[in-house]
Amino acid sequence: MRRIVVVSSGLAGAKAATRIKRLAPEIEVNLVVPSGEEQGKESGPFARMVESRQVSEALTEARQVGVIKASEVQFDFEQSQVNVRSQRGLLHIRFNEVVLEVEASARLPRSLRAAGNVVPWPLENCFVLDSWINETRPGRAVVVGGSVALELLAPLLESGLSVTWVRTADAAYDADMWDVIERRVTDSSNGRVVVEDWTDVRVEALVPVLAEDGSVQSLQDGRGGEVAGDVFFWTIPQRALHPIIAQPGVELDPSGLIAVDSHFRSGPEGLYIIGSGVSMSRLPGKTPGAPVPSVAMGEAAVLASARVVANHLAGFVGENASWQGVAGVFRSCGADVTACKLGLTMDEARVAGFEPEFALLHSSAALYGNADAPVTLKLVCDKNSHVLLGAQVVARSCCGQADTIANSVSVAMASSMTVERLSVLDFAGAGGEILHRAASILSNKLMYRFYGISAEELMASKEAGANFFMLDLRDNVAWKGGHIPEAYNIPYTQLKKRLQDEVPRFTPIVLISRSSDAAYSAACQLFGLGATDLYVLDGGMDMWPYEVMKG
């Protein structure tokens, strides 16, 4: 009888095992999981993180999957067997194929490996952190990293710690969206999270200051900056740190993750590897009609890869039998902030050979009737084909709009949808409304009715001597509360009446509003009246990072 052994500590491996058994009941499937003897001794936010990533034993039993709890696992590919040490002793399980879930983890610098208060993250047995925190009672945690570090903020805050987030360079989001994430985290944590921007500091340049007992008491950036804490969480760089990488034929890509083929095969015959420790970056040249490549292996994409492996091993024939490189959702949550990234960022799109264009929209609070639930959305498309390449969205965790928008964008990208098609679809709910608006803005940009200009580009152009007429469309109260120096104020509701007398005809116009929504509407109106040199401040004053003039 054909036997498939799945070795996994997470949800993806268990999903793969149960799916194989469902699609091919004649195959014997064994699922090897950690014994978990220490679990259950402590309950807390980190223990709940472990539980949320595990499948129930009742489900595996219902699928007739044999579950073996192991304290040690070794592979013998010459004999095609897995050697498992369990409560029943040492078991030798023969296999035809083996599926292994490998999680990425941070590689600690040599200077930090002996410190007892430095935690590499993700940590496989992270439930032990609840006990450690309750016993040692640290006051401040320092979290070093980017998108992976974001998921640590919520459990640390729930555990009673204050947090310093040392944000390092991370290509998961564009720079303007990182600014949004940083502000949202700071605002929603009521001052308990402090963000230190060290994105221009090389990781190799970070210098730990050690206490007499060998623990780390602070980190220095090599240029005068320093952050102190009681416990340090290290999330960079993410590497595949698993004994399987020593097997002949298992290769790592330049980033330190395991390289696999379209069926997730790697190394010895019969070995399939899934998980965040696998490199699934797909950046081929532009292919008409092909799905947008995926460059982020978030939880959703890992689960999708598990389904691909299960389909292949169960003999399923169809478009889902091999990895197509479609965009998976990379989702980060922390301090009541949810950030989702799908497909390509602007930089990733350029590397892939596209000529990208984007629309950046910060939703109006009135759209939701709740001032605490704004959503920021960035859509990226190809200028030539107009096909949607990616999206980034940031929202409050409680409003659920980030997930709603991400789900809609994921379907659109999987079908290689153009922004024109996206702009005429009818979406339900507030999340659909902001997606529709952003797609319409991007469609108008591609027709060259107006251009977007970022805050950085506007400042650089002004410093270079460019002559703009900056027209602020907010009401007079908002304008007096803070506006760009030299900006001229005409409220949007008065624009039609005052346009002819107060707006110059032959000077490039930069339209400014609170969230850029009204500015885009005004740009379409002015274009219809014959204006051609129109620019919209992307993101509006809500995302303006420089000093303003009041009064």
Automatic annotation (TrEMBL):
<dbReference type="GO" id="GO:0016491">
    <property type="term" value="F:oxidoreductase activity"/>
</dbReference>
<dbReference type="InterPro" id="IPR023753">
    <property type="entry name" value="FAD/NAD-binding_dom"/>
</dbReference>
<dbReference type="Pfam" id="PF00581">
    <property type="entry name" value="Rhodanese"/>
</dbReference>
<feature type="domain" description="Rhodanese">
    <location>
        <begin position="464"/>
        <end position="550"/>
    </location>
</feature>
<dbReference type="InterPro" id="IPR036188">
    <property type="entry name" value="FAD/NAD-bd_sf"/>
</dbReference>
<keyword id="KW-0274">FAD</keyword>
<dbReference type="InterPro" id="IPR050229">
    <property type="entry name" value="GlpE_sulfurtransferase"/>
</dbReference>
<dbReference type="GO" id="GO:0016740">
    <property type="term" value="F:transferase activity"/>
</dbReference>
<dbReference type="Pfam" id="PF07992">
    <property type="entry name" value="Pyr_redox_2"/>
</dbReference>
<dbReference type="InterPro" id="IPR001763">
    <property type="entry name" value="Rhodanese-like_dom"/>
</dbReference>
<dbReference type="InterPro" id="IPR004099">
    <property type="entry name" value="Pyr_nucl-diS_OxRdtase_dimer"/>
</dbReference>
<dbReference type="Pfam" id="PF02852">
    <property type="entry name" value="Pyr_redox_dim"/>
</dbReference>
<dbReference type="InterPro" id="IPR016156">
    <property type="entry name" value="FAD/NAD-linked_Rdtase_dimer_sf"/>
</dbReference>
<protein>
    <submittedName>
        <fullName>Sulfurtransferase</fullName>
    </submittedName>
</protein>
<keyword id="KW-0285">Flavoprotein</keyword>
<keyword id="KW-0808">Transferase</keyword>
<dbReference type="InterPro" id="IPR036873">
    <property type="entry name" value="Rhodanese-like_dom_sf"/>
</dbReference>
